[in-house]
Specification:
The protein is of the alpha+beta class. It is built from 14 helices and 15 strands. A six-stranded mixed sheet has the order 10-11-14-13-12-15. Strands 3-2-1-4-5 form a five-stranded antiparallel sheet.
């Protein structure tokens, strides 16, 4: 029987009419695991079991579809199961029966046959954790909160502690580079200064330890041997070593990122040749990107628990539209919905002398299967292709998009196999292609000069008709492309 098992009962509602209850428990690494039969809804009651005690009382007042964290004095509100689970893991992983807010606790309720009642649940949680633990760093990035969830296991070996420490350092440096946009030279300065500061502190600690050991009757030789042994097992000193540490240079950091994290490298694709030689674009394989995304537990949770709008009179999402609902391919809710986006950007000063030399075209995508409030987050947007703007204009979009279109056709017709958490092939295709007016006109083959006569990509109205619109109803037909 687990040390702590909490059973959460949910109220029924129109959105999730079949939901009954959920359970959350500490797994073997101290994380909170929550399971429920369908979705995540309002918490009605809290029931805790620990050996011979049980407490039951309403956990929160109804506030829309939110629940309140029951741990004192936290007052956080949640709507999503994965957010609630990661919050408990990060903030309250050491919870006990005394941690709960007393307004949710009733000491008068006793426990009968607790071990028999919850032994099956305990086994279910253990099996679930073993099945869902994925490869990689051992850490999870919760895209709901954009934070790292690290496994905490009191019985970890020294190798596990070293791996966790190295992963934490790597994520720290990688976030500085990718999210905070800190230059590599600045990151290198931070690495060296952290190493120097810790080395100074360590030398001072060695002197103090040696003096204390000698005062306890040890000889200088034995004290030195002990200090050498301690230094050899000082994980922080090894991680911050500016001479031999794994993060001592930009090159070594990049090697560590690629070897430890789910790195999907781009492929160099030849798209043509000009007087200067071969011209290349860069493409990241769609199948590998999808497989990498599904290694994240929060992605898999959103895929398995989609938000369904049962009110036909309300439009909440692109999936509520008639075009999506009438598409036979997406009648199956398990299909992946790729929302493609393309745009041009400049990697130099846009008003400088080199503004036209290094203009790039970036092609990104996110998944319509993500919850709407997650689609615009950087962590869920994946880069799929890059090329120079002038190369795209010279050789055409068909050549640049060739590999992506090939993968999309295979994704739609044959499916992708060996995706984490998916039995059998996973199917999907592009649901929308987004971009600004100029880029959308280029991809669609429309007029790119907005001073032209037929400047609209949605209808066949001429520019000369603008004086009568919208005074008179439209008489021109809409485009079919």
């Amino acid at each position: 029987m687990a040390t702590n098992i909490i059973k959460i009962k949910f109220t029924g509602c129109s959105t999730y009419p079949n939901i009954t209850d959920a359970n959350f428990d500490k797994d073997c690494n101290g994380n909170i695991v929550i399971t429920c039969n369908e979705g995540f809804k309002m918490v009605q009651g809290l029931e805790c079991v620990e050996e011979e005690w049980r407490y039951q009382n309403p956990i929160c007042k109804r506030t829309g579809d939110e629940i309140c964290c029951p741990i004192y004095p936290c007052k956080s509100l949640f709507k999503i199961k994965s957010s609630f689970s990661s919050h408990l893991t990060r903030k309250h992983h050491n919870w006990t029966k005394d941690s709960f807010n007393q307004q949710f606790v009733n000491d008068n309720i006793t426990c009968d046959s607790a071990e028999t009642e919850y032994s099956a649940i305990d086994k279910e949680f253990t099996d679930q954790f073993d099945d869902t633990e994925h490869e990689g760093t051992g850490d999870n990035i919760d895209i709901e909160t954009n934070e790292t969830i690290t496994d905490n296991n009191e019985d970890c070996s020294i190798d596990d502690y070293e791996s966790n420490l190295m992963t934490s350092f790597a994520l720290f440096y990688l976030k500085l580079q990718a999210k905070q946009l800190v230059p590599q030279s600045t990151i290198q300065f931070i690495v060296e200064e952290i190493g120097n500061l810790y080395s100074l502190g360590w030398e001072n600690m060695k002197k103090m330890l040696k003096r204390k050991l000698v005062e306890q009757g040890l000889s200088n030789e034995v004290a030195e041997q002990l200090l050498v042994e301690i230094q050899n097992h000082n994980l922080f000193l090894h991680a911050t070593d500016i001479d031999e540490g794994p993060f001592r240079s930009t090159y070594r950091r990049n090697i560590y990122y690629k070897s430890k994290f789910r790195h999907v490298p781009p492929v160099k694709c030849k798209i043509g040749q000009n007087i200067k030689g071969p011209v290349y674009s860069y493409y990241v394989h769609l199948e590998k990107l999808i497989a990498s995304l599904f290694q994240d537990r929060s992605v898999l949770d959103q895929y398995n628990n989609p938000i369904i709008n049962f009110n036909r009179n309300e439009l909440h999402d692109i999936r509520d539209g008639t075009h999506f609902k009438s598409n036979p391919f997406f009648q199956d809710n398990s299909r992946i919905q790729i929302m493609l986006y393309q745009d041009a950007f400049e990697i130099v000063n846009p008003i400088g002398a080199a503004k036209t030399k290094h203009k790039m075209i970036g092609i990104h995508f996110t998944l319509g299967n993500f919850y709407p409030w997650n689609r615009s987050k950087i962590d869920t947007i994946q880069l799929v292709a890059l090329c120079r703007d002038k190369d795209l204009s010279e050789f055409g979009a068909e050549v640049v998009f060739k590999n992506f279109i090939t993968d999309c056709k295979r994704f739609e017709n044959e499916g992708f196999f060996d995706v984490n958490g998916i039995t059998g092939p996973l199917f999907g295709t592009v649901i929308s292609c987004l971009g600004d007016n100029l880029g959308s006109h280029y991809l669609g083959g429309f007029v790119e000069n907005f001073s032209g006569e037929y400047w609209c990509r949605f209808c066949l109205h001429a520019k000369s008709d603008k004086d009568i619109l919208p005074k008179e109803p439209r008489t021109k037909i809409t485009r079919t492309v």
